[in-house]
């Protein structure tokens, strides 16, 4: 399983380039952090990796990626449903029995430090607990590619530290994980970091570019992920 970005550049109509000539090779087991100043294109790059946007230039190739999971920075769940329900539901949707789904959901909750909260309603969870729950829910879906956008942006330092502690558990032999973050501690929890400041055009149409233009090619994406699922 692999995702390859080759000389990718992107801009929105009427704006300068966000980044230019970016090449990136992602394989199963990778836990990659995306950093850079506001406006450098971290969330946009996640959209490109998900196949929601097409690059202005360059190429993105998905090889063996059939599903994409996405966890946004503001978690949202069903207030009256328990933590266990939130993780078990995607397993039930995939055909598991209630008993099997609950057993796997309990194991996932334990993995993310939430085993004691299985029967707690979502409305009673703290911000850090809710964010870890959405990560557990995303992993229950077994995505090939998991995109996580600013997982600690809305959290206090103690809650952010607990989320950072579980990030290392996300990547495995069948999943690629990409995390966009402003937080250096979150970036440090990743195996490697791509700093978009090195490819950032800034807001002046490219005069602030800090990496030489590597050319690129015609815009487009070969193939694409089979499906994108959101864990809010």
Molecular structure report:
The structure is a single chain. This protein has 232 residues and is of the alpha/beta class. The protein has six helices and ten strands, in the order E-E-E-H-E-E-H-H-H-E-H-E-H-E-E-E. The protein has helices at residues 42-50, 83-93, 98-111, 127-140, 157-167, 184-188; strands at residues 2-10, 19-27, 31-35, 57-63, 68-71, 145-149, 176-180, 192-195, 221-222, 228-231. The strands form two sheets. It has a six-stranded parallel sheet. Helix 5 (157-167) links the parallel strand 6 (145-149) and strand 7 (176-180). Helix 2 packs across helix 3 (98-111) and helix 4 (127-140) packs parallel to helix 5. The radius of gyration is 18 Å and the shape is globular. Mean pLDDT is 84; it is low at 202-223.
Key features of this structure:
single chain; about 230 residues; alpha/beta; Rossmann fold; 6-stranded parallel β-sheet
